[in-house]
Write a structure and sequence with these properties.
Elements: E1 8-16, E2 19-27, E3 31-34, E4 42-49, E5 55-61, E6 65-71, E7 80-81, E8 98-105, E9 110-117, E10 121-128, E11 139-140, E12 152-158, E13 164-169
Antiparallel strand pairs: 1-2, 2-3, 4-5, 5-6, 6-7, 8-9, 9-10, 10-11, 12-13
Amino acid sequence: FATESGEVALAWSQESNGQNDIQVLTGQNDNLVNVSNSQANSTDPELVVDSTGDAHLVWVEDDADILYSRCSRVDCTAPAPLSNSAALECLPDPSPQNAEPTIAIDPADRVMVVWLSGQQSLVYSTWSASANPSQTPTGCVPGGAEEEPAGQQPRLATDAAGDFSLVYGAGTDD
């Protein structure tokens, strides 16, 4: 990902000592940070860059938790969990399994993350890029649980008006 000022922001999962860690490269000086830095298996990183040049990163840890970090040109915030869905009324049975996070940011620097929770729901969180996200998701995607398995491979985008758009697979094997 390249910013308007020509800086680079990249994220990837790299195997180290029998587990995967999330690495992020930011800034003009190629600042490399192990952002997950845990004993857990960390995979599926996705990132976006806001208008100030900060990278917003999400990933899966141990096929259970969706984590988030904001990375400046110098360092990254400590990983914050997004997937504490026990308090959501829209989830009939909160799952300990969370996967396939996708992230987008709109022109007003509002961040949205969507992920698959178990086999039955798509869950989302939204917040301002300058703030820390809540540990409890914002809600469930309407219609995301009509098929089983629900909403595979979700992908987000935004337009110039600031509208978020989500696409996902219907979950059929046909």
